[in-house]
Amino acid sequence: MFHHFRRRFLCTAAAAAAARGAGPPPIRVALTESSGRGVFATRPIAAGEVLHSAQPLVSHPSPSLLHEVCYSCLRRKAGSDGDGDDSSGSCYFCSDACREHSQGFHGVDKKADWSLFDDHCSSRGLKYPHMAKRLACMVISGAVSADCLHILQPARLHQGTLTEMEEEFALLDSTFRKAGFQEEVTAFLTREWYINVLARIRINAFRIELVASSYEDLLSSAVASVACDAAVGNAVYMLPSFYNHDCDPNTHIVWLASAYARLKALRNIEEGEELRICYIDASMDVNARQRILADGFGFECRCQRCLSGD
């Protein structure tokens, strides 16, 4: 299944790039010796080169920014212009295109009263259940299939996390039922589906920080992230999720004005070299990096920087 999906995905990406006159992305997805799937260079890549871009599979703005960040693309509201506000006052759209793109799943979302679900997440500081809720709305609206995230690596879940997920699922399920959705359109929505989705979102979601600068002016360095404003939300992608971690990465993921991601080379990369990004703040000391990667991502980092104690 994976090989079939990978061929289909890369062929689609190549066709889109060819249509723009840019040629296929200089990458391939393959198995690594110790880290599962990885992304590799198919030719020499120069520092600063844009490798490819990616649209999110599912995204959600930070709950506190629903009136400041586009409900669809996570673009920040420009000034005090409120022309994009949803008629119900529940969220903000930056353009008619984003409103139309979201029409299906937003229509499903608006039919239900999410106050209990939102209060539960807010009281516990939870962000990923909002993404699972949006994915469920997308499935009900027909925008995506219920198994669209299954190809991604799941996180390891502890019993406490599973118990918490069961509480969230019960609230999600009851909210859809109270809203009057028929069983045939929510048949996919089981405890197993919810836990499966959350396990993948937890380890593959990116914290979206928008760089307040033009793309041409960005330095080819991970320190470009210091120019970022506060996080506007979270998103899960397909191809970027296949990049493995390194505390001294050769590739950087950048968001400019929206959740539309760009992957860029930080230094010269040789053909066949694995492309890696840094999942965390690379400026932390080795002990802090190891602790966060173990707790949040479930692995011990053995990159050269960590092995040297840097």
TrEMBL record:
A GO-annotated cellular component: nucleus
Coiled coil start-end: none
InterPro entries: H3K4_H4K5_MeTrfase, SET_dom, SET_dom_sf, TAT_signal
A Pfam family per the record: SET
CDD domains per record: SET_SMYD
Domain of life where this protein originates: Eukaryota
Residues covered by the SET domain: 25-280
Descriptive protein name: SET domain-containing protein
Organism: Oryza punctata (Red rice)
